[in-house]
Design brief:
about 170 residues; mainly alpha; Four Helix Bundle (Hemerythrin (Met), subunit A); 5 helices; about 70% helix; elongated; binds protoporphyrin IX containing FE; DUF2269 domain-containing protein; transmembrane helix; transmembrane
């Protein structure tokens, strides 16, 4: 059962959309910087700029998206673990949050410090991860709109009973 009024639920959903699709937009900015860097743009411009985007936009948004996503699930009838599409989004977003904070942020900041010494191998570090994460976020968006696979239900006896996809 929803614990929010219809107006509050719409406001929360709006916040969820603005933050999660803003995250996708920030990811595309990183990918763009990565591609121009790979094509030979000045590393003294590209990688410090990418470092700023990761530090002040992408990484903070990753945390906000996770928190708002979890709140959106818990405070609406969807629930966090009830529907497969919500659960898969939770897993994807959690893995991505970990990779952004533990791998991408330190790597991109390190690229900014390398200056002209940056190699092609280094430049790929700002192409491949954003390509993967952009794909993951597009998958999350598609899952959100199509809501496939129905719901998970664990009965008292422990049996899972799949129910057709639809509204909760
Ligand atoms: C912790 C991760 C996330 C969870 C638990 C989550 C959960 C949810 C839930 C429960 C809804 C339905 C809200 C409602 O009907 O009021 C929703 C909607 C939506 N989510 Fe997420 N979300 C997460 C991450 C994401 C991400 C990363 C994206 C895209 C980049 C995304 C895109 C959307 C979209 C586009 C909708 C609107 C779907 C519609 O209204 O038909 N979500 N999300």
């Amino acid at each position: 059962m929803s614990r929010l009024s219809p107006a509050a639920r719409k406001a929360l959903l709006t916040l969820h959309l603005v933050t999660s699709l803003g995250w996708l937009g920030a990811d595309l900015v990183l990918l763009t910087l990565g591609i121009v860097g790979l094509r030979g743009a000045d590393p003294a411009v590209v990688y410090p700029a990418a470092g700023l985007v990761v530090t002040y936009l992408f990484a903070p948004l990753s945390v906000v998206v996770w928190l708002v996503g979890v709140a959106t699930a818990l405070l609406t009838p969807w629930g966090l673990l009830r529907w497969r599409w919500v659960l898969v989004k939770l897993v994807l977003t959690t893995v991505m949050l970990g990779l952004v904070l533990l791998l991408l942020m330190p790597t991109v900041r390190g690229l900014g410090e390398l200056g002209p010494a940056v190699t092609t191998r280094d430049r790929l570090d700002l192409v491949i991860p954003p390509m993967v994460s952009t794909s993951v976020l597009i998958v999350a968006t598609v899952l959100s709109t199509y809501k496939p696979w129905g719901r998970r239900r664990v009965r008292a006896g422990g049996n899972r009973r799949p129910v057709a996809a639809g509204r909760p």
